[in-house]
Amino acid sequence: MGDISRSWWLLLIRGLAAIVFGILALSWPGLTLLVLVVFFGVYAIVSGASELFAGFRHGARSRAWLIISGILGVLAGIVAFVWPGLTAVALLYIIAFWAVFSGVAEIVAGVQLRKVIDNEWMFIVGGVLSVIFGVLLLIWPGAGLLGLAWLIGVFAILYGIAMIALSLRVKNFTSRAGIP
């Protein structure tokens, strides 16, 4: 339990990165695909790296899901930087599949976390939002870049809020449990 409690700040960093990413996507929706690729690449690498770090710190329960999701997040970010000229549709599919997979991984990890912390649901909410976001992108791939930027921005802000709420819940659990 101590490993999860001491890692509350990783969830906070993921949440803050998601909100910053979301605000940037909403603030400049008319910018080129290159800027969106950079925003996504930075976010995916930060999110993936924090999942990897958490995966190596946690017990066997959710380790594999966090590590796999973290590796895919970092790889998605690297792909975004290596091939910045991707078309909007190609980027849309990368983001969609990454969102669906990471969302499923977070739902599984959240269910396992519920076995450790009573009534823990924010990780599952973040995962469900991620899956819904990915599926919506797959259903409507013809959406314009402006619509994609707004959809990504709103998703990232909602997801970030869920991760920050989870981090505070885990931190408060640390305080109540007397874990240093």
Q: Please, what is the average pLDDT?
A: 81
Total number of β-strand segments? 0
Structural class: mainly alpha
Helix content: over 70%
User: What is the rounded distance between the termini?
Assistant: 12 Å
Task: Give start-end ranges of low-pLDDT stretches.
Answer: none
The number of helical runs is 7
Estimate nothing, just give the exact number of structural domains.
1
SSE string, helices as H and strands as E: HHHHHHH
Shape: globular
What kind of sheet is the major sheet? Answer: none
Identify the quaternary structure here: single chain
Strand content: under 5%
CA-atom Rg in angstroms: 16 Å
Topology:
Elements: H1 2-6, H2 8-27, H3 33-57, H4 60-82, H5 88-114, H6 122-139, H7 145-177
Helix pairs in contact: 2-3, 2-7, 3-4, 4-5, 5-6, 6-7
Transmembrane segments: 7-27, 33-53, 65-84, 90-109, 121-140, 146-166
Keywords: Membrane, Transmembrane, Transmembrane helix
GO cellular component, one term: plasma membrane
In short:
By secondary structure, the protein is mostly helical.
Describe the model.
The protein is mostly helical and 180 residues long. It has one domain (2-177). The chain is 84% helix and 0% strand. The chain contains 7 helices and no strands. It has helices at residues 2-6, 8-27, 33-57, 60-82, 88-114, 122-139, 145-177. α4 runs antiparallel to α5 and α6 (122-139) packs antiparallel against α7. The longest helix has 33 residues, at 145-177. The protein is globular, with a radius of gyration of 16 Å. The termini are close together. The mean pLDDT is 81. The chain crosses the membrane at residues 7-27, 33-53, 65-84, 90-109, 121-140, 146-166. InterPro entries: Acid_resist_chaperone_HdeD (IPR052712), DUF308_memb (IPR005325). It holds the Pfam family DUF308.
